[in-house]
Amino acid sequence: MIEVVIALCYALGAWFYSILRYYDLWKRGKVPVVFFAFLHVFSLIVVFLFETGISAMISDVVSVIMHAYSVIYGSVMILTPILCFVRGIVRFIGKKAGCSGKIYRFFNHPTKLILGFFVVTMCVGAVIFWKSRCISWEETVILQEDKKEPVKDTSIVYISNCFVGSDMTAHAFDSLVKKVNEKKPDVILFGGNLFGKHTKEVTIDKTLASIKKMKAALGIYMVEGSADSALVEEKKEKISGAGLHLLLDESAVLHNGLQLVGCRADGKTKKPMSYTLSLINKEKPSIVLAGEAMEKKLKEEKKISLVLYPKKITDTGNGGTSGVNQMFPRNVLASAKINFMQIKK
Questions:
Q1: How many other β-carbons are positioned within 10 Å of the β-carbon of residue 205?
Q2: Which terminus of the chain, N or C, has fewer Cβ atoms within 10 Å?
Q3: DSSP, residue by residue, 134-155
């Protein structure tokens, strides 16, 4: 949590500094002030549309354009102070040393260098945007040495925090499905927040149609997240019809003996975790999809092989797809990865 607070404080400070820095540059007549004002007004509009969920009602193409803008211009505003700080150090050292060469004069120029910073930071933002749309794999091996009834080697794909309809478009999710199928997993797990709070019906239908294309010999399982718990409750039948097995404070034993346990995220409908965990057979390997933190002591007592959470944007490992297609600066803090796990004897 402290990392998020520090990052947000820096982002606000950097944004304010950059506003002053570029406003001074625009005032010199290089760029009309009205253009400068438009950039910031449009930034506020984009943030408003994403944070209120209105972006979910906009076409995928427009949503991608807004996402690209938020990342690229956000990079300019966040990274400019760092480059200006480096420039200040170079100027200070050059002044102390009595330098007057071309390099020093370039760093001392009031407009050329700042315009250069603008171009460089835009390029960095473009790279971040491209990277945020590329999904990588994080691989984990789970051993079951302490189990009397171990299962055969099993491959699992774990996905969480997609927020389809807000942070991720249905088209981007379809690309994710293709990547998952390339791995040919035995089991696919959705660990919460598949949808956003304001995901519209047509996007839900597109997403579920993509899920129907997923291939997993032992099935596809899902738990609700804090963001989509109400939507999942309302659309349970439609979700199940797409081939997703919902685990709402329930357990499932796969054909190979692996146990899956899903805990609800909605405080109004969830059962005590003690009840849900009582469904576990300690002699068999088990995976718990949990919406809240679990004490290490409890995990050891129940001999749980693995606990998976829908990770926060600053967490890594067992996380899911946090960071994919998210707005700046959340995509920089996040890890755009899908977990690929293998249970071995």
A1: 13
A2: N
A3: --EEEEEEEE-TT-SSPPPPEE
